Sequence to fold (372 residues):
Amino acid sequence: MHVYTLGPLPTNGLAMLTKVMRANMGIMITASHNPHNDNGLKLFGPDGMKLSDKIEKKIENLIDKKIINNLSKPEKLGRVKRLETGTKDYIKILKKNFSKEFNLRGLRIVIDCANGAGYKAGPELLRSLGAKVIAIGVNPNGLNINKNCGSTFPEKIKLAVKKNKAHIGISLDGDADRIIMCDEKSNIIDGDQIIAALATRWKTKKMLKGGVVGTLMSNYGLEKYLKREGIKFIRANVGDRYVKEKMQKNKFNLGGEQSGHIILGKFATTGDGLLVALESLFALRKGKKASEFFQKFKKTPQLLKNIEVKDKNIINKPEIKDSIKLASKLIRQKGRLLVRKSGTESKIRVMGESDNKALLSKCVNIIVKKIK
Fold:
């Protein structure tokens, strides 16, 4: 294969360029929202969509076999070229989704790029639209990606917005496919709140198709709010590919996760923090404050515990299953519990949700103590 190398570039930038350049495949090397030691791959097909679990498994099986017979002879090897215009091409594609008159003049924006893939494209995009940009998390050294910064560490953006008296804060993760925001009052805005605000706006503008896809982690407050607004809400398994699958199956054009991985089906095939930021800023362009736009519902109290384990299959042990049954029985009709393996780390995630905070803590801790 002939290979074009580019980057650093956000994940959706790669997905977009794979499709635009009519490439056979796109490969993203990234730590995503994890520390550098959890580096991995994200694979895209020629349509800019992530490959299915089934196809990824086939590729894994091929790698595990002796592949010497499948390798090309030296004279038939592909060639490598550096695509120098990758970031500019990506920014151009993003801006095409909005009117030429759209600008961010007069806005002071803090952006935390998590020392990751968006550290060039993020500030460059916002500055090109006229914003005064305070950029942090823009000094990657290969080891500091997501380290005490970015969307998994929102405290940083909160403090930066306050210090710089910014109108809004944008916090990306390592590969810039997630976004957590911060309003002018230094309130953190998570993915559920962003989805609620965009769903409401899209419904009013008759841009919303079908409804919204969330996940098993989506706050119950979001579900209740969308129901009140007459917007359909469906839950998918945790993971952007499962959100996208449900969106395609039900012909919805908006979906995402509380963690900030949001898919704007009208514009993109996967999550894109910068695209979501632009869509949100477009809604605020007439002087509306972020605190007014995003605060749509009251969250149901949630408690999430991440437990490091040597073997994630511990979740299948009888004593763990018994503790989950006991806790689920206690919280029944007063809340809900979700226990799952992390998709990218050696962790078990235990999440509970209930207006009864004492009961919530008790039920989550019953399971956590058994796993530990």
In short: Residues 3-87 form a domain with the Alpha-D-Glucose-1,6-Bisphosphate; Chain A, domain 3 fold (CATH 3.40.120.10). The radius of gyration is 21 Å.
